Structure formats: structure tokens, C-alpha cells
Amino acid sequence: MTTTTEPRKHKLNLGWLTPPPKTDDGTMALVDHLKEFRYRVIISAIGLVLMMALSMVFYKYLFAFMLQPAFEAEHLYKAAHPENAANVSFTVNGITGGFMLMLKIGGVAGVILSCPIWLYQLWSFIVPGLLAQEKKYAVRFLGSAIPLFLAGVALGYWISPKGFAVLMSFNPAGVQNLNELSEFLGFLMRMLLVFGLSFLLPVVIVALNMLGVLKAAQLNRYRNLSIFGCFVFGAVATPSVDPFSMLALSFPMVAMFFISLAICSVNDRRRAEQSANDDVVLDESKINVD
């Protein structure tokens, strides 16, 4: 009697593409938190790679767009110093320099275009530790975080020629300024991301207030220190050393801090009124029962 054995089927393990199961109260073990973090990082990376691949289709236009601040800075510099005949030139080092330049431009565009994906994954990583009624703030978080991040990137792009022109003013008269393209794009990328991430400050403050972690009274108590911190952050975080870029980042952060303080004050006042009304209703119900 002969027996036939079925061929063994190998199943593809895609456990790393699925988040760990969630509990009703939001509590998770340490291992599950690590799995959740791995899952969110992988999804963010996939979104980044997809947006990076999409941006490669428009590489020629992105290349011109990314170099525009440098050419505008050259124009501003020559208008302010007509006696200096120096030019700005760009170079690519090594045989693989052009390919690495393409990857870097695609990476910058991918990070910016995929911001809805990684911002959502960032919020979703926090959500399992929250109560069910607190998850309703996810839409508000994304609805404000995405445009603020993009607005910060746009401000960084707009302000970068002014900063580059200030840096070029340190060049001696008649000296040609040579720039390695990969290094220049890395400099611009850091500037765009710093401006974009700094504009998320009010979203983080208001989100912590809505979750009951941060009160408006605490913000008001450390208001002067927070303003000083905004200027220190603007001085340290901006890649360029010119004061124009620092002030262009610090002043919007201070303005957004005061806007966040006003929103948190309204939220705390509304929360206190709601709590008082609930206490009154509870007292009336006890009287009626008695």
C-alpha cells in the first residue's frame, strides 16, 4: 500500500506587516509596544519609498526646483555687491555623484510628500495608550499637522535664498564659489525639515492639552522661558549662521506658542465648566434619589 504525501506549502510570514492586537483599555506589553513601533516604522518607510519613486518621474523639474534658491541667492548677492564679479558654480564629485544626487533629491521630496503617512503613523503609535474617547482627536491632529508642516517647509524654502546670500557675502571679492551639489542639497534639506518640524509645535502643545497632560496654567507659568527657548532653538536648529534665518524661524514659533496658549486656555475653561455642570447634575440626582 502506497501513500502519497502532499507537497509542503510554505506560507509567507507577513507578521511584520500587521500591528499587534489592541486591547479595549489600550494597555500593551513591552514586546507589543516594540512590535507596534516596528510596524509603524515599516509603514512609514514604505510610504517614503513609494513617494520617493514617484518623485523620480519628475526628477528634472525637482532638480531645477531645488537649485532655484541658490541661483536666487546669487542674484541677490550680485545686486547687493555689484563690484564683485564672483559666480556660483556647482560640482558633482565622483563617478557615482550624479546617481547619489538623484537619490538625495528623491529622498527630500519623498519625506515631504509622505508627511501624511508618517504623521498618521506617529499618531497611531500614541493611540493604543489612550482611552477610546481620546482617539477622536486623531482627525484634528492630522488636519492641522499636515498643513502646518507643509507651511513650515514652504517658509524654509522661501527664506533660504536670503540666508544663502548672507553666507555668500563672507566670500572675498572676485572669489568663485564652488558648491558640491550633494552637500548643498543636504544643507537645504536640513533647513526645510527644521522649519517644517518646528511648525508642529502648536499641534504638539494642543494635543498634550487635550489629553490632559499639559495645562494652560503651566504654559503661562513658563511663558518667558518658552519664548527664550524658541530663540535658542532657532539659533541652534537653523543650519545657516545668518541671523535672518534664525529670526525667520523664531518669530513664527513664538507666535504659534501664544496661539497654542490661547487655545489651551479655552480648552481648560471649557473643561472646567463641563466638570462643574456634571457636578451640579450629580448633586441634583442625589437630591432626587433622597
Overview of this protein structure:
There is one protein chain. This protein is mostly helical and 290 residues long. The chain has ten helices and two strands; from the N terminus they run ααβαααβααααα. The protein has a two-stranded parallel ribbon with strand order 1-2. The mean pLDDT is 77.
Question: Which helices and strands, and how do they pair?
Answer:
Blueprint: H1 30-56, H2 59-80, E1 88-91, H3 97-113, H4 115-126, H5 137-168, E2 177-180, H6 181-198, H7 201-210, H8 216-221, H9 223-237, H10 243-289
Parallel strand pairs: 1-2
Helix content: over 70%
Count of discrete alpha- or pi-helical segments spanning 4 or more residues: 10
**What is the string of SSEs from the N terminus onward?**
HHEHHHEHHHHH
Low-confidence runs: none
The overall average pLDDT, rounded, is: 77
Instruction: Provide the spatial order of strands within the biggest beta sheet.
Output: 1-2
| Most strands sheet | 2 strands, parallel
Percentage of β-strand residues: under 5%
Helices and strands: which structural class? mainly alpha
User: What is the rounded distance between the termini?
Assistant: 85 Å
Q: Judging from the principal axes of the Cα atoms, what is the shape?
A: flat
How many runs of DSSP E, i.e. beta strands? 2
Oligomer: single chain
What's the gyration radius in Å?
A: 26 Å
